[in-house]
Amino acid sequence: MSAAARTDAGAPAPEPFPAFLKLAGREVLVVGGGKVAAGKVDALLAAGARVRLVAPELRPELERDGVERLRRPFEPRDLDGAWLAVAAATPEVNREVSRCAEARRVFVNAVDDPSNASVYLGGVVRRDGVTVAVSTGGRAPALAGLLREALEALLPSDLSRWTAEAGRLRDLWRRPGAPPLAERRPLLLEALNRLYAPRRDEAAPPAAPEVHP
């Protein structure tokens, strides 16, 4: 039986649109002052966001530079100017943040409350300039975490070589006479496998993974 999400009417639910947000220099509202909020603030600051934090009580690690702190309950005007909101408070507060954000057309991630979220944050693997995100549409975040760990174990330790080679080929393929798009992926696979080909001055070939599509 399919495990796809369904609407109340039993129809298949629309799939979320996956995207990566450029938040550098943009304001993000975080509501909540606990451990979960602290984790979200870390990720938002790493993305270069300007964080406004609203909560009556704050954990000590939230007393940090780059965070505008407002020690009080959430108010709808806190969303003014925000590109994104993260609701990491009580369920009642999260619902209020979600309601107000929806009215202002601000996307909101309501932690552990997918019914009140318009953004789901997935499990993320970052290595050597490559970012892989896994989402279950908010239905099974623990599974997303397990899949993230599995993908992290599968990625090669020298992924930076793959990234560099793919970037080199992309620059070449921007020039006139480049192969058509349909041929580029097989050509990239051949190029990645050549990274592990033994050199003529080496006595024995190095152990290397085989790159498959």
Automatic annotation (TrEMBL):
Its EC number is 1.3.1.76. It catalyses: precorrin-2 + NAD(+) = sirohydrochlorin + NADH + 2 H(+). InterPro entries: Met8-like, NAD(P)-bd_dom_sf, Sirohaem_synthase_central, Sirohaem_synthase_N. The keyword Isomerase does not apply. It comes from the Bacteria. Pathway: Porphyrin-containing compound metabolism; siroheme biosynthesis; sirohydrochlorin from precorrin-2: step 1/1. Residues 128-153 form the Siroheme synthase central domain. Keywords: NAD, Oxidoreductase, Porphyrin biosynthesis. Signal peptide: none annotated. PANTHER family: SIROHEME BIOSYNTHESIS PROTEIN MET8. NCBIfam families: cysG_Nterm. This is precorrin-2 dehydrogenase. The lineage of its organism: Bacteria, Pseudomonadati, Myxococcota, Myxococcia, Myxococcales.
